[in-house]
Design goal:
By secondary structure, the protein is an alpha/beta fold. Helices cover about 40% and strands about 10% of the residues. The longest helix has 23 residues.
Amino acid sequence: MNKTIEHLKLNEMIKVSKNLSDIYSLLITDGEPILRKELIQIIKVFVENNNVKKITINTNGLLPEKLNDTVKIILETLPVQLSISINLDGLPKTHDELRNTKGAFLKVSKCVDYLKKIRISYPVLNYYIVTTVNNRNLKELEELSKYVDKFFGCLHLFELIRSPSKSCLPENYRNEFNPRDEELLIDDNKLNEVFSIIFNIIRSRSIGSWQNALRQASILTGVEYAIRSVKNKKLKFKCQAGFKIGGIYPAGEVFLCELMKSEDNLRDINYRFEEIWKSKKSDNMRKIIKQCCCSNSCFK
């Protein structure tokens, strides 16, 4: 994203919303969403105008009190199912170093404590931990998983660290959102080790109900699918990026796939998202997406 461009303002988001049809699920991410002062107002706009039923907010967990207040207001005022995805990239030392913030791990713990209490009153609240698997945390994943199971008691998901440079996209279609430290990327010859570690994690968990058994099987299948996609340079199923899934960067650029260069800016076409979505340029990009492969399990 071009950081010099001003983010879309609330009145602009209202225009975007009014030009869209119904949206079932809305994912709010990029940096730290809860820092945005108008976040709750923006969510309300999409719920009222686009009949949004499910909201997911990604957070790095560095602002526990702010997250607590935001979640409470959303659940008290809007008829939605709310999910909070919290990033946790390792045990305390590793997580703090990767986030470049002393005490970051403890702040995630505080976020979970707040969310546990809120869910007592609002069962529609869901929260879970997401760990991005990389070269720095690979050896401590099993210990981290035991910690999450014991102290957080919530779903723990794993995603391979991804990079446009590791995708099958033609180079001229890739964006520049590569990890700042390329050494975090996992070599293909380590992918079997990754699967083995996560397999052992899933196998060691207490399964309990059949619903949880299916959930754990889904986690393992997702990781296996991502690894096979990277190793074989081929997707087994149709990627939904650009078909059922698309997005808007904070400054208004539309994207079909988060690894590809963004499309035109909504500000240039009077905030008509579908004009970009249905354009010939987007159709051409979808042809490229069909030939791509990556570890983006959220888009499969």
